[in-house]
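Severity: low
Component: inverse-folding endpoint
Summary: output formatting inconsistent between runs
Steps to reproduce: submit the following structure tokens with default settings.
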């Protein structure tokens, strides 16, 4: 990275030059964003991953800009037009749009009306008119008549074409029109006449005759209109008032001296705006508005994905998982505490077989045989019916029942990853296993699925796919490293997201583990093929080893800092284990005593915090949630009902909530709170339990309108979800259940 760009980045992001320079140097050395945020806080000034990522993106932007400058300079130089002044302008440029404006007059073009006029020898006539002197245009034009230019009219038209293109390439002209687009552009869409009555077009009927200020058009609306345009139902334009734009251009280029040449310039301005400037700048704004819409949609998708990946894990429990179905039955699998498949079969409790008694006996038998501790049920077809069946069984012991979001499970079951894991099993077994493993550890299982298939975004197929993938990959990497990974149980698909590890190294770790047994300490990682010192530095702190000989191997303390903890223990006359177990010992530590040139205040604070609960999972514990037992289908939902639900998707215009029927309801942003809400994500989180009021039911269109306004003061949405399935409030329980619990408590404390 050319150091001249670093101050620009620092100023743009309101950071110190030292912070930006250090991140640039660390990045050049191969440091990942999670590593810099966690283990190089002294260098970054304690910047978080979001800010570090912004610096990295700016470094990429200016790196690309620098390469583009080289191309521009070489092209202009090859034309013999590169002056020292022009070179300095290009080299000092820090904006890609400005660079392209500078380059535009020199950019190789296809044949244009202006270039053809130049070939016909009309450049001198254009220059003469440009001066707007006392020259008589028609008289002057007679001197340029040739075999190619037969009339005065043709000569003047050619000269105006040259002038129109010249104006369209002027930086001040382009900036003037851009300013008008920025302040006054209107987004317009209309239906293609022949498509208006088509059934497929009806989903875009809100945009058949639509207009809105471009600056106020939200992301989801822009993407919807563009999708309609792409599918051939809509036409989209971005318009400005031509009179305002032409007036601004005339102020720049007309001398207003009443000359006849000035009239030719005025005509060229009008033509140049319609034919060249307006389409060019409109295209810029089409692209920039699309990018802004993409950025917002990708940001929402990324945040939703982060919340889903960090959903509460059940942990190491023995699980029975069900992938529900009617005609084909419910696929059933039993998993041990590590997620290994130990049994699979199928039960048929629902129509048309209706073998509910037999299914209940099978479930009761398997729970006893495999000492099952929890049951996970996919939330798709027949999910509610299967949940009702399971909750009605007396297992003779406490067995927690969870509904599990199965979005993307079918994608996993047919994937190469699933075939590699379960080559002997069919896709139905693999899908059920995925549901069970999601309950045990959502993060470990969801990393195996293309994030776009998980279903927590809007318009994911309409946004830039490269940027979407890059953003989602960063989210997965961030979540994996935030939680940490068990080195002795993690799959290669999880390991490949650990800081510094490639797919090849992840595979090598798994193969080394299979051949040599479990890792006893972090140092053994250095024996893995292709594991160099730099890679070890990047990954070691994020990998955990349970029951390791050295207690810090199951913590986020980096091996490079072990000596600090060991010195603390030595100074207190105890072991590292004693230091972890005894809070009074830790209080005696004089943190300033251990600060050095390489170990700063931030690192010491992180170490002491980790010693309190080494290896702890930052995700909250899981809690049980139950839908309203009286609601099974959309026909059961009535306006005015207050029902519990789970947030399944968050968008800028509202929140989708699963209330236990096969169609999610929508809480429009205006219905989220009794007070104004600008961003739904500030009110609710993904997989959060909420109490909602039904405001609209359209069975034919399968639409449910919901509100949280009435429940704003007392509903469980005020409490952030602590798990995959949060616990319902008392309002969510049938009255007889609550009364029974109250009676039990009275007896207990009587």
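Observed output (run 2 of 3):
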């Amino acid at each position: 990275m050319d150091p001249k760009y670093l101050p620009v980045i620092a100023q743009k992001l309101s950071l110190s030059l030292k912070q930006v320079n250090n991140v640039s140097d660390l990045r050049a050395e191969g440091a990942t964003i999670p590593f810099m945020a966690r283990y190089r806080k002294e260098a970054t000034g304690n910047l978080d991953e979001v800010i570090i990522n912004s610096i990295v993106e700016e470094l990429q932007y200016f790196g690309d800009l620098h390469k583009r400058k080289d191309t521009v300079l070489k092209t202009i130089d090859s034309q013999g037009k590169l002056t020292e002044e022009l070179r300095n302008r290009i080299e000092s440029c820090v904006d890609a749009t400005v660079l392209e404006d500078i380059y535009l007059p020199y950019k190789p073009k296809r044949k244009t009306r202006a270039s053809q006029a130049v070939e016909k020898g009309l450049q001198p006539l254009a220059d003469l008119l440009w001066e707007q002197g006392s020259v008589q245009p028609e008289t002057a034009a007679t001197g340029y008549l040739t075999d190619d230019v037969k009339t005065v009219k043709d000569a003047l038209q050619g000269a105006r074409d040259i002038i129109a293109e010249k104006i369209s390439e002027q930086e001040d002209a382009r900036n003037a029109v851009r300013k008008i687009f920025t302040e006054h552009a209107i987004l317009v869409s209309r239906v293609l006449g022949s498509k208006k009555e088509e059934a497929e077009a009806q989903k875009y009927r809100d945009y058949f005759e639509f207009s809105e200020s471009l600056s106020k058009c939200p992301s989801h609306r822009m993407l919807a209109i563009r999708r309609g345009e792409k599918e051939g139902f809509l036409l989209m334009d971005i318009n400005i008032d031509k009179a305002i734009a032409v007036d601004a251009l005339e102020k720049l280029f007309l001398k207003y001296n009443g000359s006849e040449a000035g009239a030719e310039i005025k005509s060229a301005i009008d033509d140049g705006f319609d034919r060249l400037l307006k389409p060019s700048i409109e295209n810029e704004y089409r692209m920039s508005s699309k990018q802004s819409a993409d950025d917002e949609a990708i940001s929402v998708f990324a945040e939703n994905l982060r919340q889903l990946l960090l959903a509460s894990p059940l942990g190491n429990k023995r699980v029975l998982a069900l992938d529900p179905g009617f005609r084909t039955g419910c696929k059933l699998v039993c998993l041990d505490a590590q997620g290994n498949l130990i049994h699979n079969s199928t039960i048929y409790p629902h129509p048309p077989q209706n073998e509910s008694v037999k299914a209940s006996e099978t479930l009761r038998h398997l729970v006893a045989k495999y000492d099952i501790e929890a049951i996970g049920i996919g939330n798709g077809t027949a999910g509610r019916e299967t949940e009702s069946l399971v909750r009605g069984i007396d297992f003779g012991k406490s067995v927690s029942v969870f509904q599990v979001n199965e979005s993307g499970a079918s994608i996993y079951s047919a994937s190469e990853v699933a075939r590699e894991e379960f080559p002997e099993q069919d896709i139905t077994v693999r899908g059920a296993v995925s549901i069970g493993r999601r309950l045990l550890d959502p993060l470990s299982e969801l990393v195996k699925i293309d994030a776009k298939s998980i279903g927590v975004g809007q318009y994911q197929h309409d946004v830039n796919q490269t940027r979407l993938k890059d953003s989602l990959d960063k989210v997965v990497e961030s979540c994996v490293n935030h939680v940490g990974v068990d080195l002795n149980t993690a799959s290669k698909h999880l390991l490949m997201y650990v800081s510094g590890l490639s797919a090849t190294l992840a595979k090598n770790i798994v193969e080394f583990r299979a051949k040599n047994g479990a890792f006893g300490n972090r140092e053994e990682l250095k024996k893995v093929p292709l594991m160099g010192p730099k890679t070890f530095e990047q990954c070691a702190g994020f990998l955990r080893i349970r029951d390791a000989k050295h207690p810090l191997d199951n913590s986020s303390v980096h091996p490079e800092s072990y000596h600090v903890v060991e010195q603390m223990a030595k100074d207190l006359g105890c072991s590292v284990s004693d230091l972890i177990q005894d809070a009074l010992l830790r209080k005696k530590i004089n943190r300033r005593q251990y600060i050095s040139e390489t170990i700063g205040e931030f690192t010491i604070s992180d170490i002491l915090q980790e010693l309190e609960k080494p290896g702890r999972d930052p995700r909250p514990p899981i809690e049980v949630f139950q839908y309203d037992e009286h609601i099974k289908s959309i026909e059961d939902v009535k306006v005015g009902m207050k029902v519990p639900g789970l947030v399944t998707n968050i968008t800028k215009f509202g929140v989708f909530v699963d209330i236990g029927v096969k169609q999610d309801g929508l809480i429009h942003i205006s219905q989220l709170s009794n007070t104004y809400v600008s961003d739904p994500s500030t009110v609710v989180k993904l997989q959060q339990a909420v109490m909602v009021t039904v405001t609209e039911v359209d069975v034919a269109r399968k639409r449910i309108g919901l509100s949280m306004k009435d429940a704003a003061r007392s509903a469980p949405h005020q409490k952030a979800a602590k798990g995959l399935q949060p616990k319902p409030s008392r309002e969510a329980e049938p009255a007889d259940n609550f009364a029974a619990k109250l009676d039990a408590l009275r007896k207990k404390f009587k």
